[in-house]
Amino acid sequence: MLEEQIHPYPNEQARPYDEICASTGYGEPFATDTFRKAATPAVTTEFRDQRTAAHFQQPGAVLMVYGLDPLRTNADKLFNLMCLYGNVARIKFLKSKEGTAMVQMGDSVAVERCVQNLNNVAVGLTGAAPLVHNHNNTNEQQQNENNAKEHKLQLAFSKQPYLSEVTNPYPLPDKSPSYKEYITNKNNRFMNPAMASKNRIQPPSKILHFFNTPPQVTEVELIQVFRDYDVIPPKAVKLFPMKSERSSSGLLEFENTTEAVAAVMACNHAAIESPGTKFPFIMKLCFSSSRSMTIRNGDNNSNGAADKQEH
């Protein structure tokens, strides 16, 4: 059975996960030049990295993801979605089956969460299609399928216990590698019980919760982020009253769930510059339990209970 959902609001009971890896695991960041923290601190040793990796080596933690947009999807975009349901260890796209990837999660519980929440979910366009000419894909019908406005994900458990390291991955249409490791990626949100307890487990919805954005960010600036990533921007933005001067948070409403899922894949962990700061803020996105943009009693302080990250 999956664990009960965890809510980010102070007036709702938060429950930590029992089956979460216990190490902190700071290492190579999602994008080295966009983090407000330094890369790996001096105290992080090879032993610590090995200990972190050991927590991800649990059998039964690999799943298959079918129906991905073969032109626009890459490992980072898939990570941006899967990390909402558990730690992501490795992602490998299959050259023999276009639009298919294998994902090794931190444990089997995370795999169950992904399958339960993401199977049969439709995804909109996650950005502009790269300019590529695939000699192996000259069939007009296949080309039309690749350029479809949405794709439906199909998730299934894999019989493979682990994903082996790929030393020479092939390039995806956007030239990014077809295999990437995320074991020590600091954008994983379940690295220890304290971090895990701050996450919510919600199925995809048309309303997103955003946090870890600049304190003085405006609605116009937030909408522009999505335009910069070539995805449909939210139709409405609601900024929560700030609990502190460190960061801001709020809600984003999209026309439908399909657009919201595409926005998460493209813009989760997007860098937002802020005047007077040396490094940009890394915006975090997750699906909201709210069904409307009206703030309920007690929700004004939701940025204090969501998964926060120092920057």
Topology (elements, then pairings):
Blueprint: H1 46-56, E1 62-66, H2 75-82, E2 88-93, E3 101-105, H3 108-118, E4 122-123, H4 140-146, E5 151-152, E6 154-157, E7 179-181, H5 193-196, E8 207-213, H6 219-228, E9 236-239, E10 248-253, H7 257-267, E11 271-272, E12 281-282, E13 284-287, H8 302-305
Antiparallel strand pairs: 1-3, 1-6, 2-3, 2-7, 4-5, 8-10, 8-13, 9-10, 11-12
Helix pairs in contact: 2-7
Number of distinct helices: 8
**SSE string, helix = H, strand = E?**
HEHEEHEHEEEHEHEEHEEEH
Helix content: 10-25%
- What's the alpha carbon Rg, rounded to whole Å? 19 Å
Strand order of the largest sheet: 6-1-3-2-7
**DSSP strand count:** 13
CATH class of the largest domain: Alpha Beta
InterPro entries: HNRNPL_RRM, Nucleotide-bd_a/b_plait_sf, RBD_domain_sf, RRM_dom
Domain RRM: 62-133
Keywords: RNA-binding
Protein name: RRM domain-containing protein
In short:
With 311 residues, the chain is α+β, with helices and mostly antiparallel strands.
What does this structure look like?
The chain has two domains: 164 residues, 2-Layer Sandwich (Alpha-Beta Plaits); 99 residues, RRM (RNA recognition motif) domain (Alpha-Beta Plaits, 2-Layer Sandwich), CATH 3.30.70. The N terminus and C terminus are likely disordered. The chain is globular. The longest helix has 11 residues. By secondary structure, the protein is an alpha+beta fold. The protein contains eight helices and 13 strands.
Task: Give the key terms.
single chain, 311 residues, alpha+beta, Alpha-Beta Plaits, 2 domains, five-stranded antiparallel β-sheet, four-stranded antiparallel β-sheet, 21% helix, disordered N terminus, RNA binding, Nucleotide-bd_a/b_plait_sf, RBD_domain_sf
